[in-house]
Amino acid sequence: MALVPVEGLKCEPCDSMLIHLVGPGGAGKSTIGVRLADRLNVPFIDLDACFLAQEGDISDYLRRCGYDAYANRNVEVYLSIAAAEGVIALSSGFVTYAKEVHPGYTKIRSAIAESMTAFVLLPSFDFERCVAEIVRRQVQRPLGLLASHEEAKIRQRFSIYMALPALKVETMRPPDEIVTEILGVFIARTTETGD
Description:
- With 195 residues, the protein is of the alpha/beta class.
- The protein has 8 helices and 5 strands.
- It has one domain: 3-Layer(aba) Sandwich (Rossmann fold).
- It has a 5-stranded parallel beta sheet.
- Helix 6 crosses helix 7.
- The chain starts with 17 loop residues before the first strand and ends with a helix.
């Protein structure tokens, strides 16, 4: 893929610009998102952090209310920030919810997946390599995550991420290289559409 050179790029925030980073926990959404937002001079928004600010600890919420209630509320939290501009890291399961989880979810998911400014981050497009790397990254985090649970999640969700029409980006390489690639695609796409 030919990329537009963007080394050292800083630009003013674009009108109604929201870049979505999609992928499993441990794919690099926060690492890449912070750097990408800095390069574009826009805010970085972490959907999990927004949920935490509005509802408290996600694990506690899941224990109290269950996964479907969490997913429904997470869609509501997304809707409360979706008009913002910046780079948003979606929750790892956001594009994997059941379509009936929220009245507007199917439309929201389709809009994100088909957006020219959505990027699916995965360590590798090779299934087994991706699974191994996600598990390795997740259990290294200070969150007390179980390898078996993280492996089951990525095994279940990998095909969902790969089936999304959004551009896929492998993240087992230096973060700045990934950011430069995403910026190049973003600039090319927004230039083509006149945004």
